Amino acid sequence: DEGFRVCHCNVDSIWAHKERVSHFLDSHSPFDVVAMSETKLGPLIDDDMVRLSGFNLHRADRNTRGGGVALYINDNLKVLARTGTVWTAKPGYPEYLFCEVSLPCSAPIFVAVVYRPPHAPFVSGSNFLELLSSHMEDYSTKVIIGDFNADQLSSSADCQLLRTFAEENSLSLVPHGATHHTSSSDTWLDLCYIDVEDTLLSYSKTDAPFVDGHDLIMLSINVTLTRPSAQPEFTYRDFFSVCPNMLNTFLHTCNWDSFSTPSSVESMTVCLNDNLKNAIDALVTVKVVRRSSKHKPWVTGDHSKLLAERDRLYRVFRRSRVVLLFSSIVLLETEHMTPLRAQDNYSSSNV
C-alpha cells in the first residue's frame, strides 16, 4: 500500500503529449489520479483518442487552442460526482473540475484539478474560490492540484490571496518548490493543496521540466487502498510445440471403432472430436501470458538515453545557469518527441 497517489502536469495539449505521459506512467508505481491542465481538447477529439490505459477520463474542455482540465482516474476506483467549468466565453477565469472519488473501506475523497490562465482574476467576476470552498467542505480528505499561475515564491497579491484561502479552509500546500523553469527564472506555479489533517507520505517532481518548462509533480497521502495483486493474464495453446511423431503415435492408440463399423455421420464426428481433444490436452502446451502496456516498439534504448542526458544537462544548468545549456535541453526535448510521434505510423501500419 503506497497510499493515494496523485500526479499533475500542465501538459500543453494531451493530444500532442499523450505518449510522453503514457511512457512516464509505465515507468512509475501506479497512480490513482492523473490530473492535467491546459489539455487543449475540443468536441472533435473524443475520449478514445486521448485514453490512457487503466484510467477513466473526466474532462472539462475549453477548446483546442488553449485551456481545459482533465482527471484520469484509475479504473479500479469509482467517481460518484463531478462538477466542472462550462466554457462559454473568452478565456480569463479559472477553469476547474471537481470529483468525488469512492474508495473501498474508506471515506470518499474530494479531488479537484485547476487551471488559472495568467493574470485571470480569482475573485472579480469569478466565483471559483467560493465554489471550491463549498464543494470540498464535506470531505475530510482533499486534493486540489493544478497550474494556478500564482508564484508561491513571490509576495504578489495572488500569492497572498491563495495563502489566506488555504488558511481559512484548513489546507496545507505540498512543498514542491519551483515547478516552472525558463533560462532566466524558476517559479512555483503548479500547486497541490491537501487537508491539514491528512498525512503526506511522500512528494516529488521530475528531475527536469516535463512539458513546456513545467515539472510533473507527484504526491501520496495516507489512505489505505486495495490494489490488484497481479496484471491481467490470458492463456493459449502452443500448437507449434507439438511433435508430429508423438501426435501420430497418440492418435494410433485412440479408439476409432466408429470408423471401422457402420456408423452414423454424427457418431463418427463425435469420435473424431473426442480423439482430437484428447490429443490436444495431452500434447499441446498451455502457456500463460501477462498482458502489459509497457512494451512500446517505438520507444527504444536510444530514446531512454536521450531522456537521461536531458535530465543530466538540466541538473548542470540549475547549478551553473549557463543559457547555452538550456538551449541544448530544448534541442534534446525535440529529439525526445520524434520516436513518440512515430507511434502513430507504427499503430496505423499494424492494425
From TrEMBL:
* Molecular function via GO: catalytic activity
What the entry lists under InterPro entries is as follows:
Endo/exonu/phosph_ase_sf, Endo/exonuclease/phosphatase
Q: Which residues form the Endonuclease/exonuclease/phosphatase domain?
A: 109-197
Which Gene3D superfamilies is this protein grouped with?
Answer: Endonuclease/exonuclease/phosphatase
Would you tell me the protein name for this molecule? Endonuclease/exonuclease/phosphatase domain-containing protein
UniProt organism field: Bracon brevicornis
